[in-house]
Structures are given as structure tokens and as C-alpha cells.
Amino acid sequence: MADQELTWSGAFARWDRRLFDAVARRHWPGADRVLPRLGRAANHGVLWGGAAAAIAVFGSAGARKAAVRGVASLALASATINTVGKWSVRRPRPLLEGVPLTRQLAVQPQTTSFPSGHSASAFAFATGVALASPGWGAVLAPVAASVAFSRVYTGVHYPSDVLVGASLGVAAGFVVRRLARDAQEARVVPGDERTAAGAPALPDGAGLTVVVNTASGTAAAAGLDVLRTRLPEAEVIECDGSELPAALAKAAARSTVLGVCGGDGTINAAATAALRAGVPLAVFPGGTLNHFAMDLGLAGAGATCEAVARGQAVHVGVGRFSPGPDGEPGYFLNNFSIGAYPELLGHRLRWAPRIGGGPAALLAAWRVLRSQRPVRLRLAGGRPRSVWLLFAGNGTYHGTGPTPRRRDNLGEGLLDLRLVHGGGRPGPRLLAAAFTGPLSRSPVHVATRLRSLRIGDIPAGTPLAYDGEHAQAPSALVLDDIPDALTVYRPRPAQDGTTR
């Protein structure tokens, strides 16, 4: 048995070296200039850290979550490789015989060869991102593969080092996804919103009309199955995005309770209809992004069904901007922004149908970083100022940066205002703001809380964004937060803080 193992090991080593030599002998047009530089850019995770920062600043909320997953996966893979992998198999680096001098690195690595840390980091980051955002994963996959191949191409790793490193990176991405799912389930905790007395109880769903956005996909379909089982008398209307506003307005006008199944953009449209009709809202999370439902403490469609059946609801504040896109006030449950993010969102929405969501977001970020100019505004009647980004959250967000992530209470009736000052290039400014804490004042970033804000002298054609929707801003508008404006169903918290 030992002799067989030695024979197999020797045969594998010979195969590994032959493949290494084949790569060294082959001429790869254009690769001499690109691959060594790409490998150096990935040293110490710099390439992936830069990619994560760009996605976090300019990407959607889902893309930001994917960037965090990618960084976490990279950290896990790197820690595993450097503490266990490198010291368990102390394989020497390949001899550089046959590798052209133009490919060789100026400074050769001193650590052991097996497995490849660069490959593990590259595939860990790409896998972590892809599992949360397939579009961004498709953009990063060829870059990760090129980094991994560059390690053989420059002569610092055998092919098997790269293959094993890449496999470990992929495994790290799946481990982080599992941990993130567990953490997300634990994070769905209700806040301290005021109880809405007198919300109608609908034990079998009679009087509830639920409008379902069919474009939301499998998540909406799963929520619909739960709804039909738990509240069989509820009326269900399925429609696509173009029919959604009219369907919501009609359902709100003739129902005791308006229900909605979809993501944040769909829920925003439903909240607008419910506010104008003066009826309570039942939210059945079913979209790609469900930040409002998560911050409210709704774990899923089952929790909403229970709350509707028992008549358990809370009051939440609603952000408002006046005038809105149709001349009437517009509303936001999550956030409102002017500047770099609406510009990026507009480019992405325009290009995504042609080239896909991930490539469109990457191209949009490049366009904004390259050509975007700060927006000059007059705030609260003061002197004009230039800003790269104005962000207003419905309620206080936790976390650093110009576009933070999470709220504990949707009933406080305050705007969380964050400004990134103009000047210089947008990339450095937005990145600097991303590391600035909340409620801060610096030459780059200002964060404060207030009840209302008047914005004037808005240049013609300036876009705005609210809850992921995109529109043109008027020449002047007022932002404010309406306390306890909307009644939303949510189960009462149990003693452990979860809903029941």
C-alpha cells in the first residue's frame, strides 16, 4: 500500500510539473503585460478590497450585502490557508526553469507553495459575492480565474496549488453564506414602534386584498402559498410592475386592509396607496430586497398572516418629499437620495435589460466615477453648496457611511440626514465617507437627525431616488418625516424579543 501511494504521488507530481512546463512554454498574446500586474494587484487582498469598496459605495443594497459576504469569505479562506494549509503541506515553490524572465515576479514569495493563497482569496471573494448577487458574481468570476491562472503563468505555483486553493475559496464562500443566513434569521427582531389600537382582526382574511407583484419571482410565490393557506378568504390580485399602481389604488379604495407581496419598491407603492386611502397595510415580504420588512421585524409571510388574523399592528413613520413625481407628495419607507446614487441607479436601470444587472452596475459605477459632477443645492435657505450625495433615511440608521444599513425603530419620526460634500473626485470622497461614523461632521461627511429639510435651487434634470425607484427632481422640494403616519400589521413581540 505504501509503495502504491508513493507511485501515485510521484505520478501526480510529474503530471503537475508537465502541466506547469506546458504553460511556461506556450506564448499567450498580451498576457505578459496583464497577468503579472493582475497578480500583484491581488497581493494582500488589495484588489478585492477595492472591488468591495466600489460595490459598497455605488451598488444597490443587495450588492452591498454581497460585497460584505465576499470580504467575509476572503477573510475565512485567507485565515484557513495561512494557519493550516501552508503549514500542513510544506511544498517548495516550483523551479523557474523554462519560465520567461518577462513573466517572473521581481520579488519571489518566500512561503510554501501549497495551496495557493491568491487563488483561495480570489475564488472566496467571487463566490461570496455570487451567492448573494449572481450578476456581480458573473462580473468577478473571470477576474478571479485570471488571478488564479496568473500564479501558474508567473511560475510561483503548480497547477494543483491553484486548483486546491480555488476549491477552498469556493468552500469558504458557502460556509459564510450559511453563517449569514443564521445571522439574518436572528436579526429579525421587532423594534419599539407604538401599538396601533383598533386595527381590524381578520381571522380568515375576509376584507383583505393582497396585490402581488409577479415580477418578484419565487420569493413572492412562496409567500402567496402561505397566505392562501392561512387566510383563505383574502382576495389575491396578481399583476406585473406596469399594472401595479392602478391595482393598488383600486384595492385600497374597496378593502378594509390593503396587502402587498413583493420587495421594497412594491411595498413603497402599496404604502402610498394605503396612506391616500387611509387603510392599514399588511406586508408579505416577497422580493429581492426586503429592508422595510426586516427592520420592522417581519420574518416572513407567516408572521404577517398571524398579525392580520389577530389584529396586531403598529404605527410607523413615513418619509415624505413634496412635490413628488406626479405633483402629489411622494413617500419613502426606507430612504431618499440625490447625487451619485440616483445617477448610478438611472444608468443601471437603462443598461440592465441589454447587458444584465451585474455588468450594468459595474459600467454605471465606472461612468459615475469618471464623469459625475457634484450637485449644487441650497439647503434650508442657506448658502448654496455642492454635494456628491444627499441621503435621508426614514428613521435613524445604524452603521457608518453615507448609506447605512439598519434601523431599530421605524416610529421615531426623524430623518437621518447624511451629506457627502462636493470637491475633488467622487470616488475618494465617497470612500472616505464610507469610513466616517454616524452623527459626525468632517470636511467630507456630515450626518445629523432632523424632522424636515427644505432643498432649493435644484438644477434641472437632477435625478432622485426613493426606495430604489428613480425620478426627476423638481427645482425645489421639502423633505419631512410624518410620525405614526401608517398602520402596519406585525405580531406582538414575545418575551425573548422575537415576534409571535
UniProtKB/TrEMBL annotation:
Q: Which residues form the DAGKc domain?
A: 203-324
PROSITE patterns, per database record: DAGK (PS50146)
Mind naming one GO cellular-component term on file for this protein? plasma membrane
Pfam families registered for this protein in UniProt: DAGK_cat (PF00781), PAP2 (PF01569)
The entry's keywords? Cell membrane, Hydrolase, Membrane, Transmembrane, Transmembrane helix
Q: Where in the cell is it found?
A: Cell membrane
Q: How does it sit in the membrane?
A: Multi-pass membrane protein
Its primary localisation, in coarse terms, equals: membrane
Instruction: Cite a single GO MF annotation.
Output: hydrolase activity
Q: What is this protein called?
A: Phosphoesterase
UniProt organism field: Streptomyces venezuelae
Traced from the root, the source organism's taxonomic lineage reads: Bacteria, Bacillati, Actinomycetota, Actinomycetes, Kitasatosporales
